Automatic annotation (TrEMBL):
This is IrrE N-terminal-like domain-containing protein. Residues 69-178 form the IrrE N-terminal-like domain. Pfam families: Peptidase_M78. It comes from the Bacteria. It comes from Entomobacter blattae.
Amino acid sequence: MEDYSTPKPSGLLKRSIREITNIIIEKFKLKPGDNLLSLVHDLNGTVSIKDIYDGNPDSILIEADSSFIIFISGITGPRRDRFTIAHELGHLFLHFLPEHSKNNSYRMRATRWVDEEDSDQRRAEREANIFAAELLMPKERFIGFFEENKIDTTDNASIVKVSDYFGVSLSAAKVRVSSLGL
């Protein structure tokens, strides 16, 4: 797979990534907890379940025509899969599309395994995680839900309510609470 590039960090700030996700949310009329498969389809992509131990570590493969396949594990649950799909869409929007606009033969692949010694790879992964969090749990909606429902961060049942509303794992909801300082 030598003719596929790996994600290069965009260098965008969280605020800019939030703006991009807000545009996507508006354009595709996404609501908290929505199924992302229709969004993937609308973007000319597919989702495929694969054994993560099959020796092929790809998590997304994007062709020069912008079609793509997101690979998810068969051993994770739907909420974890939603985050994975959103993360891979982050690679599409933040790392593939800007490069593809400069070179229409550009192809990209991201893998499940990150080289912790590679600062560019780590940065690209952080950017995709920020994108996923903003897409699934938009800051303003998240804070609004948090305040309207008087969520108590020390009460696990309250965090479960947040997790259920946004259709994310309990751990993703907890990380979002922490990252927003709630």
